[in-house]
Amino acid sequence: MNPGPHHCAAANATTALPPGLQVNGPRLLASLAALGEVGALPGGGVCRLALTDADRLGRDWTVARMHELGLRVTVDAMGNVVGHLAGEVDGPPVMTGSHIDTVRTGGLYDGNYGVLAGLEVVAALRDAGLRPKRPLAVAFFTNEEGARFQPDMMGSLVYVGGLPLATALATRDAEGLSVGDELQRVGYQGTAPVGQPAVDSFVELHIEQGPVLAQQGIQVGVVEGVQGISWTEFTLSGQSNHAGTTPMAMRHDAALVAAQVAVFVRGLTQRLGGRQLATVGALRLTPNLVNVIASQAVFTVDLRNTDAAVLAQAESEVLAFATQAAQAEGVQLRTRSLARFDPVAFDPLVVDLVQQQATALGCTQLRMPSGAGHDAQMLARVCPAGMIFVPSVDGLSHNVREHTEPADLVLGAQLLLQVMWALAHRNA
Ligand code: GLV
Ligand code: MN
Ligand code: MN
User: Fold this and answer.
1) Which domain does 284 fall in, by range?
2) Shared domain check, 36 and 141
3) Quick one: 419 and 312 in the same domain?
């Protein structure tokens, strides 16, 4: 584990970056550890669900760091935060960024790494007294995780005009609290116009969150796109009754149908082939008691595929099965779409640049799709966008044990620096 700057072969061979310009590895790692203390969980990992007090403290910490680096900071009405670094010329910035909200059982790197590596890029340029030609920006977007409020990638979706601000602000969590009220409560409903600044290009650095790079011993993922995502909430309403007296044939058991759907989606992935993924990740039973048949089951189905047509087929098969299973048990079924995003292909301008700069650094690399959703897939709607992945140990993420080796974290930040510099200096 080498936390210092990497020393890959052929570094800087084909980049316009001034020779020797490197990110400061120990500083990057220290910043990740420091932000990881905000909302830290007792056994490791962090919980900074969007717009909670912990998220506010994480935001305060990150904004303070932006100010320390001399960035001009703007906050829009969706709580998206952008740190601006002036270039030699005016115009839309080359932007990087990600998110600092986490799932309830989050690790230190998902999202945070992309934001703090972006700030390390700024710090490295500042240390070297260098100003990029085009302006740069480092952003963090509100509620990327979608763990508290759906859909995921909400802030970046609003930023690019894919969801009306008013709809996002009116979205409520499971306790009935709205995004708008919570934004105000934590003091991050800003006044900057939503969607500003317009973005020249966007590159997001992220841990892979899956096993591919680690299993193959590859240093860098050149991300070509993001698979499609479909989240649906299913509500089954049956009848609660006594577990000891109700004959099996007389039951209207909401829990049974939820379980049948959970088993069905696993079989569906096998029938539809290796790229179809399906998860029943949340399940609430009412009244949730040992000796009472469940009157209600509310559960979610997360379906993903890189192929839009197969994803649509999976959605309709799940709905058809749930409808038939509910009918057979005599329970009512309602569904609600929580998130629905088609697969996204990133722009060759950014994808090829990532590959080129990874080659210049002498890194082993793999062109690959992203399994997780990311803010970059939303920015791709308005500008050339792409992503860089670094390996996740054991492919673990959305888990308090999420880990990436320090040397890989530093290497990814160096690659981000080189890609941003190249984007900022490319000919229009
Ligand atoms: C969101 O980040 C997801 O991929 O679940
Ligand atoms: Mn993330
Ligand atoms: Mn995540």
Assistant:
1) 228-341
2) yes
3) no
Does residue 159 contact residue 47 with C-beta atoms inside 8 Å?
Answer: no
Report the atom number in ligand 1 closest to the C-alpha of 110: 2
Q: Which among 305, 322, 341 is the end of a domain? A: 341
**Sequence-ordered list of residues with C-beta below 8 angstroms from that of 230, at least 6 positions apart, any chain:** 301, 302, 303, 304, 311, 314, 315, 337, 339, 340, 341
Based on the fold, state whether residues 332 and 359 are members of the same structural domain: no
Please write the tens of the pLDDT for every residue from 333-362: 999 999 999 999 999 999 999 999 999 999
**Residue 11: per-residue pLDDT:** 34
Q: Best mutation site among 229, 306, 370, 377 for ligand 1, i.e. most ligand atoms within 8 A of its Cβ?
A: 229
Query: For ligand 1, is residue 145 a contact (CB within 6 Å)?
Result: yes
Output the domain CATH number for residue 384: 3.40.630.10
**Ligand index nearest the alpha carbon of residue 112:** 2
Q: What is the pLDDT of residues 304-325, one digit of tens each?
A: 999 999 999 999 999 999 999 9
How many whole angstroms separate alpha carbon 173 and alpha carbon 232? Answer: 15
Specify whether 370 is located in the same domain as 307: no
Whether ligand 1 lies within 6 angstroms of the CB of 208 is answered as no
